[in-house]
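chain below, 333 aa
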Amino acid sequence: MIIVIKKGAEPAQVERLKELLRSRNIAPHESVGSLQTIIGCVGDVAHLDPGLIEALDVVESVQRIQEPYKAANRKFHPDDSVVDCGGVKIGGGHFSVIAGPCSVESEEQIVGVAKQVKAAGATMLRGGAFKPRTSPYAFQGLGKEGLDMLSAAKKETGLPIVTELMDFKDVEHFNDVDVIQIGARNMQNFNLLKEVGAYTKKPILLKRGMSATLQELLMSAEYVMASGNPNVILCERGIRTFETALRNTLDLGVVTLLHRLSHLPVVVDPSHATGHAFMVDSVAVAATAIGADGLIVEVHNDPAHAKCDGAQSQTPAMFAKTMARIAKIRSAL
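prediction:
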């Protein structure tokens, strides 16, 4: 349920309304937008009489919400959310590019790549310290040592760190991390979502699962937000279909639809979407043109010898050319 507040309402009146809702075991979420103020009601509103609420002097109107996700719903929060990622903003007109290798391999590697992607215009650094791999024999990441290397790169460049959390027991090592990524394989790890949502207010970059619907993605975001963390960034990286020519199948129309359904920022991952480095440039440009709030791109100094996902990783030179094209698209828009 959404309660639209009348313009010019006294703060004391609004607070009395919120107290009334709390007395009915309903959590009120106030959103002050550019055009109107609304209160979103989270909880069992089935027995709450809309007519009783609408009769209050402070209330303009009452609307029921049909979608199961509430906090992530644009009806709850009409204006775009802007998420602060260690000083870098994303959403609400703020565009951000996250770049770096799939996995951290050495301090020299990650610091070098960080300097190069920053010079090209990247605003955040990505790099995997803990890696979910299909094969138990594949490179699993350097763990805490990899996080220390990311911190060294952050110290050298000032770029905020984006890296994946796979197991909540490792979160104590993420103090220097600015954005916690929840990967596609863990998108519906509901215990992890609840734990990280309750533990921190750091931004959560939530990747769409390999076979997840948009409603499932938004419900996963809801788990984080309902646990107390409103700072969620949605990531579209394509889904698995019968097509094998590409790593995944990417529908960029999802960006437009997610912006209609939710107020949360939406970024696109052209690297995992295609699986081919030569395609990353055109897909990144297209994602920018369709209105994505940002990109997350894999960049490796030596893709041929990368320990993970070398085939889809751009070289720093390729990334610089992509960033130049993105700048032209954003200028034109």
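The chain has ten helices and 14 strands. The chain has a mean pLDDT of 94.
thats it, cya
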